[in-house]
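Researcher: For the annotation table, I need structure tokens for Transposase. Please keep the output clean. Sequence:
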Amino acid sequence: MESETYHGYNIWGHAIQQHEEPHRPGPYAASGTITQNNRVIEASGVLGFFDTDEGAQQAGLEWARAWIDSHG
């Protein structure tokens, strides 16, 4: 899990390890969470599948930044 502060929010990028299944395009599902003052503001669903945990975490952070930019 990667986190950072962005425009006064704490944002999180998650890499959710998937079980080896043929219909899954990658071993890590990506998601993002936005918090402020220890409260969840918004959370994504699965954003996509990635071969690396870093790629999934970055996708979650990018989603969170975009959400904040579009709701600010």
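Researcher: And a one-line annotation?
Model: The longest helix spans residues 53-71.
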